[in-house]
Amino acid sequence: MSDPGGGDKPEYKVYKSRPGRLRKEPDTSGLEALRQRNRPDRDKPPREPGDRKPLDWRRVAKWAAIAIGGWLLFSFLVFMVSAQTQTGVSSTAEDALTGGGNSLLTGSNVLVLGSDSRGGASIDQSQAGPGRADSILVMHAAFGRVRKLSIPRDSLAEIPGHDAQKINAAYALGGTSLMIKTVEGFLGNDFKINHVVEVDFRDFPDLIDAVGGVTVQNKTKICAPPFDNFWKGFNLPKGEQRLDGKTALGFARVRKNDCAPGENDLDRAARQQQVVSGLRSSLLSPVSFFRLPMISWQAPKAIKSDMKGPGLLGLFTDLITGNSDETNVLKPDCLGCGPGGSLVVSDTEKANEVNKLTGK
Fold first, then answer.
1. Is the separation of the CB atoms in 245 and 218 below 8 Å?
2. Which domain holds residue 177?
3. Cα torsion through 343, 346, 349, 355, rounded to 10
4. CA 49 to chain centroid
């Protein structure tokens, strides 16, 4: 043995260790290799502390879809509550209807009435006496298509139990039920009415305001003398106009236009259909999506009908999805040549328009 204090180095052997049997080498094949290859960030440098996490568009789309679905569901519930709490038509009016119409599937014929009722709750409280049908519109509504036909209120018609006279008198003589029977007999050709809708002029402006107004194309300048609550008269320039609720109602109800003395009830019916088409266009605008709960609440309040929540929802769905821009008005053979200055419409004209309306 060498002296510890000497300069000789101790004798020892150097051994190299071999890999142990229990030591596991990294697995670079199989499932682990597949995971490494499929890692989206495998080539990206590690994220530094404080860096903002990249936006996950899939997560954004997911939450957007949930929000949209929740908004639609809330609007649906609002519509159903509003529809179920509204007063329907009379039992006699329901008895006068022909069942079997389904607006979403086979289609149905709907009579839409606007009354100028002169009671204390009417829009025109200065008048007295029974109201007459201010507007008479027949629709054939089905999913994806809506056809409309306006009947001039001064058209000569046989009113059951009464003398032949202007068709709008049927409402004053016997209410909605007599109006249904009179319209069916007037149009003939086995035409039957499945549902009825009465427009409430008190709440109708609120519905127009709820959708943000309607756009119409005013063909002639309007300067009407005072009527309804327009105590200074109603004036509207010619051309495209954006109307709020009250102005839209006045546009639809103008009876006399001093700026166009030649206008008649046919022009008035065409204006009413313009308001209906404008309402549909407003409902289809992107802005209406954000107004949907308000629209859902006001829509059932503006009408009275034999249809309740599901039926009304189907009707409004038909109006939105159907192409309802075309305006059809019954054309009389002569103006004011019937009793009391009524309009006479030929049987041929009625048959042709009924066939167009029902798609025959």
1. no
2. 88-358
3. 110
4. 52
> Would you say residue 206 lies in a domain?
yes
Instruction: Give the C-alpha separation, 201 to 198, whole Å.
Output: 9
Total number of domains constituting the chain? 1
Q: What is the pTM assigned to this prediction?
A: 0.73
- Positive or negative, the Cα torsion across 63, 66, 70, 71? positive
Maximum CA pair distance of the chain?
148
- Whole-angstrom distance, CA of residue 244 vs CA of residue 247: 5
CATH assignment of the domain containing 229: 3.40.630.190
In a domain, 66, yes or no: no
Question: Does 34 reside within a domain?
Answer: no
Residue 80 lies in a domain: no
pLDDT string in tens for the chain (360-residue length): 555 555 555 565 665 555 555 555 555 555 566 566 555 555 556 656 656 667 778 888 889 999 999 999 999 999 999 888 888 888 999 999 987 655 555 678 999 998 755 443 334 444 444 566 778 999 888 777 788 898 998 999 999 999 999 999 999 899 999 999 999 999 999 999 999 998 877 788 899 999 999 999 999 999 999 877 777 889 999 999 999 999 998 998 888 899 999 888 888 888 988 898 888 889 888 889 999 999 999 988 888 888 888 888 877 777 777 665 566 889 998 877 888 888 999 999 999 999 998 887
- The C-alpha atoms of residue 169 and residue 350 are separated, in whole angstroms, by 20
- DSSP letter at 145 equals E
Structure tokens at 306: 């034999």
Contacts of 10 (CB under 8 A, 6+ apart): 2
Evaluate whether 295 touches 280 at the Cβ level (below 8 Å): no
**Two tokens, residue 224:** 């009407």
